[in-house]
Amino acid sequence: MVTPPPGYRRQRSSVQxxxxxxxxxxxxxxxxxxxxxAAVGGYRVAIFLHDVANVGNPFQLIQxxxxxxxxxxxxxxxxxxxVTILALGYGGAENDAPYxxxxxxxxxLDPVGHRAMEISIPRDLYAQIDAWxxxxxxxxxxxxxxxxxxxxxxxxxxPLKPAFQGQDGPGHLSEATISRLTGLSFDKYAAVDFFAFRxxxxxxxxxxxxxxxxLDDCHYPDxxxxxxxxxxxxxxxxPPGSGIHFPAGDYQVNGEQALELAxxxxxxxxxxxxxxxxxxxxxxxxxxxxxxxxxxxxLARAPQLMNALQSNFRTDMDLADIKAVYxxxxxxxxxxxxxxxxxxxxxxxxxxxxxxxxxxxxxxFVLCPVDPTYRMWQTIFSHAFVPPRALAEKAPVQLVNxxxxxxxxHTRTTDVxxxxxxxxxxxxRRATQPTTVIYDYSGxxxxxxxxxxxxxxxxxxxPVSASxxxxxxxxxxxxxxxxxxxxxxxxxxxxxxx
Length: 498
Known about the structure:
- The chain is an alpha/beta fold and 498 residues long.
- The protein folds into 2 domains: 1-385, 3-Layer(aba) Sandwich (Aminopeptidase), CATH 3.40.630; 389-494, 2-Layer Sandwich (Alpha-Beta Plaits), CATH 3.30.70.2390.
- Helices cover 33% and strands 18% of the residues.
- Strand 15 (396-401), helix 16 (409-419) and strand 16 form a beta-alpha-beta unit.
- It is globular, with a radius of gyration of 24 Å.
């Protein structure tokens, strides 16, 4: 990555940063807009639509509803084409870095398979942000992409590219940055801050949550650029009466409490302290907001929702786009919404300050891609929707690492495929072999899964009937279902040198 020359402001990640809190992605904000239109009329709605949903003349929406423009979100969903929306959460005015998008999620809608997938992008990923007209890329954590057009003076000098100027410039730069890495093509974006999140939940009169285990966190942000009980190491039990506490069970929370559940990063309970636990809570909160918003009591609170969103919600979607998304997502059962989180267990590596091999500045905590070319990322996300027939087969799949150079490739790839919905057993290692082979021990019982694996790994599927020497299981390897022996060829692709 290119480092700006002297005269550029030093990058924000070039020193050990304070841990910044994560804003949740609030799909309920989109629902709230629809409720406003359904329940409230007149001048107030016209102003709201102009400010939030990019609508100059609300009556134009009638024509769009009947005849959506070719290529629009509504048109694509009607014609069976995939739609992807970038959802961003940022701190807002009460945060010390108000425009850092500490929650980044790509939401893909598959009208053919009648399903959706939420892909979480880690905020600490170190990447290029290509925003300036002189073509010089600026290296930063990816959550700064939304911040650059909002505060351009804090970064490199010179004018931004026209596409990244104006009201939607921050969202469009975030789209371009994430698209370059993932290969995903975004149709629209939506961004919401802490104020809107809290006010939406309060506007709904609170939401019902379910906690499988307790959550105790004495390192929660204190709204003064610090953290509660700063001297207590993360993971230690909170002193009596300090921090935030949520018991296991079902109960109602208000906006501030919902925000605490979504932002907590250092819970004492291990299952609540990792990325998976936090993502699960955020997904639970989004589902609760959606459920409450479409209820009778939610409809009655449309004016409060409008007030919550007008000043703290940004999007380049018009109301026709939003309604099309809502009509699609509103009909999906929870089981049709899939989730994929990029973590240090799969596609990125965690580098603490001054760690050798880091892609970032010496003093920064960053995440670096295992494949710096991102070609593997693009392969994975182009295959993110596994065919329903393959998922329905529930084929047992195991990965065998036959590469000498990438010791944890089987565990990382297993995590990827498990998140895509395949039935994965734990992988194992074996002696090195040059090429990747898929062995079918099932007698052809899982044709759709075998075909998908062949496409994903770029290799042939070999039936195994009498266990020839080449298919003899390694230690810990099963001899049933489908077994992928990943050779040196796939290892080169995994780390981006193929």
